[in-house]
Amino acid sequence: MANQDDTFKKVISHAKEYGYVFQSSEIYDGLSAVYDYAQNGAELKKNIRDYWWRAMVQMNENIVGIDAAIFMHPTTWKASGHVDAFNDPLIDNKDSKKRYRADVLVEDFREKISEKIEKDITKAKKRFGDAFDEKQFRETNPNVIRRQNQINEITERLTKVQEEGDLEGFKQLILDLGIICPLSGSKNWTDVKQFNLMFGTKLGASAETAMDLYLRPETAQGIFVNFLNVQKTSRLKIPFGIAQTGKAFRNEIVARQFIFRMREFEQMEMQFFIKPGTQGEWYEHWKAHRMKWHLSLGMGEDNYRFHDHEKLAHYADAAADIEFKFPFGFKELEGIHSRTDFDLKAHEEYSGKKLQYFDHEDNASYTPYVLETSIGLDRMFLAVFSNSLQEEELENGTTRTVLKLPSVLAPVKAAVLPLIKRDGLPEVARKIVEELKWDFNIIYDEKDAVGRRYRRQDANGTPFCITVDHDTLEDNTVTIRHRDTMAQERVNIDNLRAIIKKEVDVRNWLMKMK
Ligand code: ATP
Questions:
Q1: Whose Cα sits closest to atom 20 in ligand 1?
Q2: For a pocket test of ligand 1, which of 267, 270, 372, 373 has the largest count of ligand atoms closer than 8 A to its C-beta?
Q3: Could you give the maximum distance between any two Cα atoms of the chain, in Å?
Q4: Three-class HEC string of 82-106
Q5: CA distances in angstroms from 473 to 62, 444, 476, 491, listed in the order given
Q6: Cα(25) to centroid of ligand 1, in Å?
Q7: Exposed/middle/buried for 175, CB within 10 Å: 0-12, 13-18, 19+?
Q8: Residue 1 has what pLDDT?
Q9: Alpha-carbon torsion, ordered 355, 356, 357, 359, to 10 deg
């Protein structure tokens, strides 16, 4: 497990060293769980956002995108249930004075048991070789059965205390499981309390007339309140979707995992409006479709799994997460929620305005049901970044650090390198940059030996290096080096654009969703 920590530390320091992510206000010692995206990070983030937008909005005739304000009328949050129910259960350890989310403590405890099962299975697999039958092993091995029963029991009790809002029961569960504080090692816990995650602020200049506002904790509500405006002006027919990306704010109780859980973050959400009764099939459709989007990036099928929710939010009739294998284990990356007509009905009630759809085929009005896909852009960034960062042993016994970003997402697509700084090579290299920059983000680099420059670009995630040497002056060819394979080819300068385009073009990547 120490290994996991090391990998994660490397991810964080690499993100800083190569200009991806900085701590916010670092010169003032930072602000907890707030981060800034640096020169490369801003590009990677933009590329992920674009990749999502293209897949959702551009590729679907019946999905349009909007950009609603962060500030919304405060009644929005009454209607959505956030004022009353957007709480997390918190608990403090009296010895370390550290604060935890009570549900996360229990979930982590349960995950550890699950890891033990996986270890037993790996061991048995090694021992039995080809003859190993995993299903049979899970069903008959006494250790696995005992642990699985323990997991089931924890899940049952956790769901119950959450559903009933039973804070005393929650504490009892933590005590019964003997969960200890990782810092102090003690079981000296306070009671469990509810904590609302919304940030409040004020609108208006004078104290008497100022209005209490919230910073939005999700982007979805900006879509719901605009549902009818969009439907009428776009003349879309159900089923149709509205997408948006934008900042959201949550005063998270525990935020210790870099950009995994931030207090200011960005979401990419899509609300799909459907006829009541069809939510089952649309739920399956969007689960499958979103998984395809993830897999199109080629980050390994084994790194994803679905997790169906046992405890449903107040608005949902079905929900699943797409989990990703982060350096600290499988965690939620995206949520697919069947939100019923909860939100539209609530906004109708609180605003007094009708938010219904007239179905010409049925000649009837109804409140649509909603299927939501919601992914954190920063979390996706972390998934991509941590998965791409690799240490490779090379044949000559050295290692290289390489950031194998899906090339469609890479901040810089190619670096152009003159072999040496004279003999007219820099001029030719500059000309190549001038030509390619119309299509791609390109950089020019002439500092240090070419081998070091290659390593620098590998660590930066740049898919191609283009080297100009003396032969270039003779025959108009250059060496193009591929980041992942380190293979080098000699190609004509006139072909560079096509070679790069083939590799980084969004079209070719999105095609993999077909
Ligand atoms: P969690 O259980 O991790 O707190 P959630 O279930 O509250 O997440 P949702 O409300 O479903 O999350 O939000 C949708 C997506 O937004 C999540 O899948 C995640 O990718 C992202 N997200 C939520 N909270 C944060 C945060 N504090 N920092 C970064 N991303 C977040």
A1: 376
A2: 267
A3: 81
A4: HHHHCEEEEEEECCCCCEEEHHHHH
A5: 52, 18, 6, 13
A6: 23
A7: exposed
A8: 43
A9: -170
From ligand 1's centre to the CA of 265, what distance in Å?
9
For residues 44 and 433, give the distance between their C-alpha atoms in angstroms, rounded to a whole number: 20
pTM score of the predicted model: 0.88
Q: Which residues line ligand 1 (CB under 6 A)?
A: 218, 250, 252, 261-262, 265, 267, 332-335, 374-376, 378-379
Q: Which of 385, 365, 500 is nearest to 48 (CA)?
A: 385
Low-confidence stretches of the chain (pLDDT beneath 70): 1-2
From the list 415, 404, 501, the residue with the least C-alpha distance to 466 is 415
- Which DSSP letter does residue 324 get? E
As a whole number of angstroms, the distance between CA 20 and CA 18 comes to 6
Say what the pLDDT of residue 205 is. Answer: 80
Cα–Cα dist 23/428, whole Å: 39
Q: To the nearest 10°, the Cα dihedral for 19, 24, 26, 30?
A: -140
Residues in the chain: 514
- Which pLDDT score is estimated for 431? 98
Bridge partners for 100 per DSSP: 91
Q: In the numeric block, which tokens belong to residue 235?
A: 């003349």
Q: Is the peptide bond before 239 cis (omega within 30 degrees of 0)?
A: yes
Residue type, 350: Y
Residues 321 and 2: their CA atoms lie apart, in Å, by: 27
User: Can you give the pLDDT at residue 4?
Assistant: 78
- The Cα 150–Cα 147 span in angstroms is 5
238 neighbors 273 (Cβ within 8 angstroms):
yes
pLDDT of 163? 85
CA separation, residue 85 to residues 40, 63, 153, 233 (Å): 38, 30, 26, 33
* pLDDT the model gives residue 5: 83
**Distance in angstroms (rounded) separating the CA atoms of residues 215 and 206:** 20
Q: Ligand 1 pocket check: which of 215, 332, 385 to mutate, most ligand atoms within 8 Å of Cβ?
A: 332
Distance 191 CA to ligand 1 centre (A): 25
Q: Which residues contact 500 (CB under 8 A, 6 or more apart)?
A: 413, 414, 436, 439, 440, 463, 464
Give the 3-state secondary structure of residue 494: helix
Q: What is the pLDDT of residue 73?
A: 95
Determine the 3-state secondary structure of 267 from DSSP: strand
Specify the pLDDT at position 504: 97
